[in-house]
Amino acid sequence: MPPKQVKSKTAASVDRKRSKRGADGDDLTEMGDGTEQDDWMQAKTLVKPEDQLELSEAELKEEFTRILTANNPHAPQNIVRYSFKERQYKQTSSVDQLAVHFALDGNLLHKDSEEARKQFNRTGLAETKEEQAEPAAEAAATEEGGEEGASGEGKEEAGDEDAAPAPASKAGGKEKKLTNQFNFSERASQTYNNPFRDRATVTEPPPRASFSSNVTQWEIYDAYQEDFEKQEKSKEKKVIPGRKEEEKSKKKFQISETSSDDITRVETAAKIVERMVNQNTYDDIAQDFKYWEDVSDEFRDSEGTLLPLWKFSFEKAKKLAITSVCWSPKYRDLVAVSCGSYDFMKQGSGLIILWTMKNPSFPECYFETDSGVMCLDVHPQHPHWICAGFYDGSVAIFSAVDKREGAIHRCTAKNGKHTDPVWQVRWQKDDADNNMNFYSISSDGRICLWTILKNEMVYQDVIRLSLPDVSAEGPDGIKVATTGCGTAFDFHKQKDYLFLVGTEEGKVHICSKAYTSHFIDTIDAHNMAVYKVCWNRFHPKIFITCSADWTVKIWEMKDTMDKSESGDEARKPLFSFDLNNSVGDVAWAPYSSTVFAAVTSDGKAFVYDLNANKYEPLCEQMVAQKKKTKLTHVEFNPTYPIVVIGDDRGNVTSLKLSPNLRKMKAEKKGAPPVDEATKVQREIEKLEKILSMVRNQPTEATA
């Protein structure tokens, strides 16, 4: 049997279209036999150009992804606008990418809208319901007839072709035609022009008077005489003896009092206005300080970030280094910094600056000194008292309340001044006579106690650092004991008589106020100078040290019995971290016993959490904006989740800790609030759990 010829839907549709055109008188005929169909369906011959590139099969299968973007290639990318906040021209990053190729104004009305019906009524084209129903009935009848007479192929054809509705007509044969096929309406109106009116008025001129006179010598004399007589009459009034001097003194006191009150009011008002302006200027930073949380911390467990907030810079401190940082114990937004120089060849003046987060543009208070300030400390009970140590070996007391430019008390060579720079000072509890006192440590090997009396400062040498293993020979061959160089110290949080001393030789001495001749214990902690020693805020036996030998080490102070049993084991640190550069400062966090931060000379800040990772830092971030900028000091805020970092260019930068850097143990819902003693005990237990895994193992180090 000959094979059946099967036509596709497309071929059948083409046949019907051609048959229709033949019925209308076209020259085309219907394709009936298979030969014509083969001619129409024959394959196209591909012409290959002579210079066509030959590609291998792998190159042909290679996919090239091209991304179409909605960016305008002709949009300018170098638009510069003036920034009033930073007072300079800055390039704008947002560019309008919209390109308009065609625009036409028009007005479209919906047929069923009220306004369209009104237009129909105005033009006389309103249709009745019967007239509207006639075209619909005719269209339905046409559709029914077409369905009965159509074949299977006709049904397919009905799905492809569009059916045109029959025009509606009235009984009289007149066809209704809309004047606006697209519901376009164009309207115009003319408003009423108000007439112009001119009004004028005339006022009465002000009265004028002309006066002229000749001034002679006797007229001037008479005027002076009248004035002299008036003064004589006022002096003739009765004056009680002694009352005149009282009135003069009262007037002077009132004038001085009112003037001082006026100055104080002006100062207060100016300070409020200045803080309001700064609040508007640094509003975005204040919002970040209050509400910003790094959402990406949810997707990474052992990493965190530091968000830069305010940067405090002072014109007079640009060429000085930040030598110490101390938060105020009462005002949580106030930080005191000292400015000096660590280069002994470039010594000059110094500064003590008090910055507040409410006004980053200018210091709240500052003191200029003739020598570089190397350290300071704020009194815990009287936050306006500041003790400071200088490069020339002297110590001084400043008051932020008194309007004095210099120090209230300052020692000299006559009353115990150090012979080398003072590297650290620290307030202590008042003595039995309620006199304030503080300690100082210097490179001359002396640790001094300074007591502030009414009009003077009295010193007392607590301990002298010495090197028993090293001795120098005198001129006659006599061995002279060598003095050690103290660089840092810290007092115990619970036992105020116990304190640590770091030396330039890399040793750490555990000392007591009761023993002035020897140390309780000595540890060979580092190979170079120790820059900071600090007790843990929660655990009573743990302390941390940092040094110029690139390391940060955590130590445990053991009892006398433990030292005798373990031998040299007590000399090894529990943890040792190598930061690849000289470590300028280290500080424990006030909210956790396992979190500490450190800064290095290459401009980086590190934040560790021993509870999360005992080997690597959770955050290693570049803080210095300029190259070769050394970070010198770091300090945690006691209340807010921020740290301040000082550098050797006189700048202080505040940074906010991300949530991963300040994780706390979550409390159960509905549980009663935990008191401070319970929190401390929990922190001790958390650190003790980590230490128990380390004590019987070799020293852990982080490269």
Automatic annotation (TrEMBL):
Residues 179-194 have a biased composition (Polar residues). Pfam families: WD40. It comes from the Eukaryota. Residues 108-118, 231-249 have a biased composition (Basic and acidic residues). Keywords: Cell projection, Cytoplasm, Cytoskeleton, Dynein, Microtubule, Motor protein, Repeat, WD repeat. Residues 1-39, 108-214, 231-257 are annotated as: Disordered. Residues 25-39 have a biased composition (Acidic residues). Belongs to the dynein intermediate chain family. It is found in: Cytoplasm, Cytoskeleton, Cilium axoneme. This is Dynein intermediate chain 1, axonemal. InterPro entries: Dynein_IC, WD40/YVTN_repeat-like_dom_sf, WD40_repeat_dom_sf, WD40_rpt. Its main location: cytoplasm. Residues 134-143 have a biased composition (Low complexity). WD repeats lie at residues 523-565. GO terms for molecular function: dynein heavy chain binding; dynein light chain binding. GO terms for biological process: cilium movement; outer dynein arm assembly; regionalization. SUPFAM superfamilies: WD40 repeat-like (SSF50978). GO terms for cellular component: microtubule; outer dynein arm.
